[in-house]
Every structure is written in C-alpha cells, then in structure tokens.
Amino acid sequence: MIRKLTSRRLASLILVALAMTAAASGPNPLGPVPPVMTMADGPMAGVPFDIGSLKRNWRSRIEAIRSSGELPIIDIESSFDARAFNPAQYAKLMDDNAIALIAFSPQARGWTDDARVVVAIDPWRYIPTTTAGIPPAWPKDGEQFLAATATHVAKDRYPLMGEFEFHHYPSPRQLKRGQTQRDLALPIDGELGHRLFRLSEETGISFQIHYEIEDQLLPPLEKMLKQYPKAKVIWCHLAQIRYSDLNTIYGPAYVRKLIEIHPNLYFDTAFGGPDSRYPASREFHATIWDRRSGGVKKEWAQLISDHPWRFLAALDIGGDRMDTLGEKAQDLHRFLAALPPKTAEIVATKAAWKLLFNEDL
To answer: What is the pLDDT of residues 28-55, one digit of tens each?
Structure first.
C-alpha cells in the first residue's frame, strides 16, 4: 500500500532526518530526543532492518549511561498503543530513568508496522519487536496472525517476537475497569502453540509468553519445552502468582530445575513492586519480594545469581499504562540493587543483548 506523502508527513520526515543527522555529529551521547510528539503519519524504517547500524547507536547509548554512573537497562518486554505514544516525551523519560533500550511491541487489533515507525522516529532507543499476540486477533485469527508474524520475521529481520498470551487473567487495571474479556485460556500445547514454538526453532528468534502460574498449567509447558528444545522462550513475569491456592509447585527450586533441563528457557523480571496486589485475590502477587526486609527473598536472589544469563530485565509497559514508566523503572532498579553488582549488570543489559544478538556486550 502506497502512503500519500502529505505535507504533515513530509514535515515529519524532514524533522526525523534532521534529528538523525544531528545524532551522527551532535554531542549528545544518549542520542537526540526526537522532535516528534505523535506517531501519526510518521515515517517507516526500511526493511530488512539495518541491525548493524542500529546496534552502533544502541551500544553508544548503553555506554553513555554506564559512563554516567547509572546501570543501563534493556527492557525486554513492553508494548505500546500508537495512539497514546509520545516519542519525545518517552525519550526524556527513558533518559531520566537509565532505560537504555525498550523492545517495544505494538498493541493492535491485528498485525501492524508500528514498530517500524517507532524505530524510524527514534533509532537510538527502540529494538524492533513484532506485534503482540493479544485479543482480538489472537487467538481468534491466530493462524493468520502467526502467518503474518512468520512472514515479517523472515522478511524484515525482527530480532524479537512480542508477547503471546496463552493463559492470561485480567490485569489489575482491567479488573478495576470491569474488563474481564482478557480472561484468556488457550492451551499452550494446542495447534497455535505448536506453530509458534516451531517458528522459533526454525528462525532462531525468541518469543515471549504470558502464562499464569498454576499447577495444572505446568505439565503442558514442560511438554512443549521438551518437544521443541531449540525454541527460545521468554516466560514473562517471574514469580508473579495471581492465586496462590492454585500453585503448590512453582518456586525457586522448580524454576532452577527448568533452567537446568531446558537451555533455551528465559524469564523476564516484570512482576510489580513489593506492595502490588491482585484485586481479585487480594494477594501480594509479586512473590519474589521479601516485604519484611524490603529486598528480594534469598532463594530467588541465589537462583538468579547462579544463572544470571537466563533472567532479563523488563518493565511490562502496556497500551493502558503508558504513563507508568517512571514507577516501573523505580521498582526494577530496586530489584536490581538487591542483586550482586555483577549479576545485576547481566540481568539489566548483558543477558538481553546476548540472547538477541548472540554476542557479548
């Protein structure tokens, strides 16, 4: 589809071109703040993505944050609503909170090229990530959605696939709004699950899953991990348990066992702050925190220290919570500060870079 070059879009293209020119010669080591307040009619990055050029920007930005004395963070799991996204504002928020990069996955009613717009507007801060697998396109039109994902992963060289929901309770914000339609239960060992795992094996590209922690859900996931040992799976929301009475198995020992058996299984650390509760159960659902000491429970901290390359920093920003970056960054920095410094550096930045690009940072 040919997009009409309106005067508004032409102006946007000129502004972005000027910003990228300034990036090449300007003094700002963090990269320029894009002069774009909205994604409407924004330019689109060329594909396949020039990952080599993008990585030069990203490395420069990571080193600049580190040189300032801050711990740079790669957020491996967040998504955005293009209608609510202000690139200029977000760039400043990221800079203020030492968020080096966000793997920003578009939220939409079907496949969208919005990730290409984000990267074109700001090639310093965003890792191109495929559209999130959420309702209504997923799982209603799951086969078509996965076919589109496979096509774009191969053609456009996306380094990461977004979060696919298999078992998803409504979020705390959704519950407060009475939006229970996100109460999704899709068998991970069903046809769509097999197609997704096969896609990861065939391409070598990682994908993310939202999969609630319950005893009955663990065997099907273990079955898939065993059947597709080369699939790179990021299980989002480490130790986030919505209903504790439905879990008697999952804990540090169980996660350790999974890590030692399945070399391509990873966990992201988007699990909320120490005081976050799940409204439906009224429980503290971020079970990794020791609320008495204000730190991380020793068993979890030891596990992460023993296997730091298998844990990835994440903010879990979403379309209905675009305004929470500062709060989520504060919780994430608090978690990382509870880990040994070398472990924190790996979890914050190095593990994600190694997973996505198969190279040391």
So the answer is: 789 999 999 999 878 999 999 999 999 9
Give the domain CATH number at 273.
3.20.20.140
Q: Identify the domain containing residue 191 by its residue range.
A: 7-357
Is pTM beyond 0.85? Reply is: yes
Residue 1 lies in a domain: no
Q: Are 224 and 195 in contact (CB under 8 A)?
A: no
Q: Nearest Cα to 132, choosing from 271, 269, 310, 317?
A: 317
Query: Is residue 121 predicted with pLDDT exceeding 90?
Result: yes
Copy the structure tokens of residue 130: 């495929």
| Nearest-angstrom CA–CA distance, 65 and 99 | 9
Q: What are phi and psi of 152, to 5 degrees?
A: -75, -35
Q: Residue 116 is encoded by which pair of tokens?
A: 């290409």
Phi-psi region of 63 (alpha: psi -120 to 50; beta: other; left: phi over 0): alpha
Assigned domain for 286 exists: yes
Number of helices (H), then strands (E), in the chain: 14, 13
Q: Which of 153, 157, 118 is nearest to 133 (CA)?
A: 153
Phi, psi (degrees; rounded to nearest 5) at 350: -70, -35
In a domain? residue 89: yes
How crowded is residue 255: how many other Cβ atoms within 10 Å of its Cβ? 22
**String of DSSP letters for 30-90:** T-PPPS-S--TT-----SS--HHHHHHHHHHHHHHHHHTT---EEEEEEEE-GGG--HHHH
CA distance 315 to 75: 6
Flag whether 143 is in a domain.
yes
Domain count along the chain: 1
In order of 8, 27, 104, 197, 236, the CA distances from 136 in angstroms are: 31, 45, 19, 21, 20
Query: Distance between CA atoms of 200 and 202, rounded to whole angstroms?
Result: 5
DSSP 274-319: TT-EETTTTEE-BTTEETTTTEE-HHHHHHHHHSGGGEE------T
CA dist 68 and 185 (Å) reads 45
DSSP-derived letter for residue 187 is: -
What is the DSSP track for 262-282? Answer: -TTEEEE-----TT-EETTTT
- Where is average pLDDT lowest: 26-40, 109-123, 215-229? 26-40
